[in-house]
Specification:
The complex is a heterodimer of chains A (about 260) and B (about 300).
Chain A lengths: L1 E10 L6 E11 L4 E6 L5 H9 L6 E6 L2 E2 L5 H4 L3 E4 L13 H9 L12 H12 L18 H14 L4 E5 L7 H18 L2 E5 L3 H6 L3 E6 L2 E7 H6 L2 H10 L5 H4 L4
Parallel strand pairs in A: 3-8, 3-9, 6-7, 7-8
Antiparallel strand pairs in A: 1-2, 1-4, 4-5, 9-10
Chain B lengths: L1 H28 L6 H19 L3 H24 L5 H20 L3 E3 L6 H8 L7 H21 L2 H11 L1 H6 L4 H27 L1 E3 L6 H15 L5 H25 L10 H26 L3
Antiparallel strand pairs in B: 1-2
Helix pairs in contact in B: 1-6, 1-9, 1-10, 1-11, 2-3, 2-4, 2-9, 3-4, 3-9, 6-11, 10-11, 10-12
The chains are: A alpha/beta (about 260), B mainly alpha (about 300).
Chain lengths: ~260, ~300
């Protein structure tokens, strides 16, 4: 489904050059659910940005479903790739209504001059929102700016999975939420991903989350993939194992150990 | 008094179309587009030249003006999205280029339409039973038609994507929209409407002048802001309605200022100064209000 081949990403050039990604090779099969952990500056988000096309790699290729998309602009990749970002303010259009946001997400190509919110679509939205567990059905015509962070992120999850993407990218999408809301969003994500067997990459700071979710786990450090486990091995991995791995690579930082969850 | 009010209303509707254009860039796309100062004249110039030199049907000149305005907007969009020139500068460059182009179109700085059959003449003849309100009825009908077409457009899949481009660009890219093309489209539509308005104003007032577009952006903004403070709504239908109400209120206010303003020493030439001051005050109010709120609070 996804191939990342020898990807390198440098920011700036000359003396203060930063090597954000170096020699990344990654292959995902259809239905894979990969969690990615790593300290700040490990290159996790950069990797997602290269995959979705917001950033272009300095060298290397990105293939999606066998097709080379390295030079395909982000908006065109978005027809097949969904993503949810950390900041709940950024994943939705704030001054537009909940229904309008869902309408924007339900068609990713060939937007026509047809009415965006037909009666039939509206009914589908209500049904969709009733799956969320947060009560947004009565707020279909409210602007998204009046929603709480948790509600917005729930809406973002719903929008990202609405058009059955080939690939779902989650960039610490629960990190800005309080623990209770974060848990709810994780459950919601898991439900949608399992229901539609979505190929997923989830970047997270939360090691419990990384272990609990998905069939593959990947650890990054200083722009490289330093450890990878999958399936049976992943199931048996514990948080202490990961901390151990981190410390063996002298990459332990306070943030990892003091993670509140 | 009555006839003066009718004139003010006529202007309110005729300039209201330009205000709708400014609304599209300023409010929907959040792109402060100065092209309008030039494209307004382009519309007037195209219509006047077609009427005087070729005797084209007055209604057809409106379509030509709209098309020319669209092209002007596309140029600004190209400068901004493809060549990476900042939004304000792209608009200024287009506006200045249009000054020369408008002179080329007209062939001279000013064209009188007194000797040709303009839209006003056609309408007055066709709707003579309506008498004094014939032109007002046609202008109101046209403007409202445009408003309702725009409303319907902004509720389509494509229209929604255009609104989202101004609201949260990163988000709508992630939803598969080419925001560069959207901006070019929005600028084209906006300037098309502004040029159409220019063509109407020229035929209504009986002349086209190369300087008649100065301040179009400010009067457009005045309508958008005044209307927006009178009718506060996030619904697109109410928002476009507020722009037209703002345009009408502004024109009536201008009429009063021109008629009775001399009592306080107001001259017609002060109009642009006063309009700009109104826009400044309206733009600053939210900031001042927030600062006052903070003072009432802890500091």
């Amino acid at each position: 489904m996804l191939d990342v081949l020898g990807v390198e990403k440098r920011f700036r050039s000359g003396a203060d050059e930063v090597l954000a990604l170096s020699g990344i090779d990654l292959h995902l099969d259809r239905g894979d659910f990969l969690t990615v952990i790593g300290s700040n500056g490990a290159g996790k988000s950069t990797l997602l940005h290269v995959i979705c096309g917001v950033l272009l790699p300095t060298t290397g290729r990105v293939r999606l479903g066998g097709i080379d998309v390295t030079c395909t602009p982000a908006y065109r990749r978005a027809r097949r790739i969904s993503r949810i970002v950390q900041d709940p303010m950024k994943g939705t259009a704030p001054s537009m209504t909940v229904a309008e946001n869902l309408a924007l997400a339900s068609k990713r190509r060939g937007r026509t001059l047809r009415r965006a919110i037909s009666r039939r679509r509206r009914a589908a939205f209500v049904e969709r929102l009733s799956d969320l567990g947060v009560d947004l059905t009565a707020r279909l015509d409210d602007p998204v700016s009046t929603l709480s962070g948790g509600e917005r992120q729930a809406l973002a999850v719903s929008m990202a999975t609405l058009s059955r993407p080939d690939l779902l990218l989650l960039d610490e999408h629960t990190a800005a939420l309080d623990p209770k809301n974060a848990e709810r969003i994780v459950e919601l994500t898991r439900a949608f991903v399992e229901e539609e067997a979505l190929t997923t990459i989830m970047v997270t700071h939360n090691m419990d989350q990384a272990i609990e979710l998905g069939n593959r786990l990947l650890m990054m450090h200083k722009g490289q993939i330093v450890h990878e486990v999958r399936d049976e091995v992943k199931r048996q991995t514990r948080v202490c194992d990961l901390v151990d791995l981190f410390s063996r690579r002298h990459v332990v930082d306070d943030e990892l150990l003091l993670d509140p969850t | 008094m009555g006839s003066i009010l009718i004139h003010a209303a006529e202007q309110g509707f005729a300039y209201g179309i330009a205000a709708l254009g400014v609304f599209i860039t300023f409010r929907i796309l959040r792109f402060p587009d100065l092209t309008v100062d030039g494209s307004f004249v382009t519309g007037a110039a195209i219509a006047s030249s077609l009427l005087t030199s070729m005797g084209v049907d007055p209604f057809l000149t409106l379509a030509a003006a709209f098309g020319a305005g669209c092209i002007a907007g596309m140029v600004t969009g190209f400068l901004h999205t493809r060549l990476g020139i900042t939004d304000l500068l792209a608009g200024v460059l287009s506006m200045i280029m249009l000054y020369s182009i408008n002179l080329r179109i007209m062939g001279k700085p000013s064209i009188s339409l007194l000797r040709v059959a303009t839209l006003s003449d056609v309408v007055e003849r066709a709707l003579s039973p309506l008498g004094a309100v014939a032109i007002l009825a046609v202008l109101a009908g046209m403007t409202l038609l445009i408003k309702f077409v725009l409303d319907a457009f902004f509720r389509t899949e494509f229209g929604l994507a255009l609104r989202a481009t101004g609201d949260n660009e990163a988000m709508i890219v992630a939803q598969g929209v080419n925001t560069k093309s959207m901006k070019v489209f929005g600028l084209a539509l906006s300037n098309g409407l502004v040029a159409l308005s220019g063509a109407l104003v020229a035929q209504y007032s009986g002349f086209a002048d190369v300087g008649m577009g100065v301040g179009t952006i400010v009067t457009g903004l005045a309508a958008v802001i005044v209307g927006g403070s009178l009718i506060r709504s996030r619904r697109i239908g109410w928002m476009t309605a507020s722009v037209l109400v703002g345009s009408l209120v502004y024109r009536v206010a201008v009429m009063f200022a021109l008629r009775y303003g001399y009592l306080i020493g107001f001259q017609a030439s002060d109009l642009k100064l006063v309009t700009s001051l109104i826009v400044i005050v309206a733009l600053v109010i939210p900031t001042v209000r927030e600062r006052l709120m903070r003072k009432v609070g802890s500091c």
